[in-house]
Fold Beta-carotene 15,15'-monooxygenase.
Amino acid sequence: MTNSLKRPKWLWFSVLTCLILLSNYTLYRTTLFDPVPDEAALGSLLDFLVVVPLLAYFLVLRNRYSLKYLGAVILAGYTAAYFIIPARHFPQFPFLPYLILFSEMLFIGLELFIAYKLLTKLPGLLREYRRLSGNNSLFLFNAKRSAEKHLPNHKIGSVFVTEFAMVNYALFSWKKKTSIKHGDSFTYHQKTSVNAVYIMLIHAIAIESIGLHYWLHSWNAIAAYIVLIANIYGILYFLAEINATRLTPFVLTDSHLLLQSGFSKSMYLPLENVKEIMYYDGPEKFSRQEMNDLFDARVPDLIQEKPMLEILLKDPQVYELMYGLKRKASRIVLNVDDPERFYREMLNRLNQK
């Protein structure tokens, strides 16, 4: 089987959607096909409101995510149509606003139902979080475990936890300190330039936002504010990474190893699944094939050095990304500020098994 056939379905969805957007943009926003007949708008609407949602269902949502996400895809398709298709083509479709209004009402109704379910689970979530936080101050880990217990297999719950944790780390964690009552903790960022990387990115987004916002505002105010909101979100994300990296060291207990690398990725590793730990002696960079089976617990660095340690697993272990996304890995590479102590403590606990 060729490498192209092995590419994930979401990549095919992205490529096909980009081709649809590009072809329709070229049709209406360039002079290559002038004059564009009014009937062409019907085909474009079918692209945005039927073809793209069907691609999303068959290539991304089916058997993995709830169908309620399809409402968001349809709404995004209508937004794309609104910006790409000239306004003079819309009067021939008087039913379209009512169709979109119905879709939006259905989508909002589903979201309100989800919010209601979350609120009914909130007391149990808070009780479980308080119990877990008595052992450590790892906010995101405790919030995820609480959600898993009271909202199992709930994708929206995972999204809610991610967004809530990001706001908490970005805005309300600057004066907090790490507290680990059970197990040994190991920092992994003090000898890196990870904070400098995130600060540089925040500065770049802030500077870019000012100029881009004014330029877009002269063209389309709605697009300007959408980009502005996305940039604010990006700044909050990098602020969350800074505090999460500072407040979430690796934690080693007699039964498990918790690897939460900043805000965006983590693994709960039972020690019984560890086959071997060793000092890393491989190439500096990993191939794409290796990355498919690897959990890289290092943080970004201006000069990314080779990993210090490597952990081999008996069976592939799940690790978590943002919004409840999960992958599996049978190898782990990591850096810590005190690799000798980490290696020694890992061996001591593994020998006790």
About this structure: The beta strands are 184-186, 250-252, 256-261, 265-270, 274-279, 294-296, 309-320, 326-334. The mean pLDDT is 84. DSSP finds ten helices and eight strands in the chain. The CA atoms of residues 71 and 349 lie 49 Å apart.
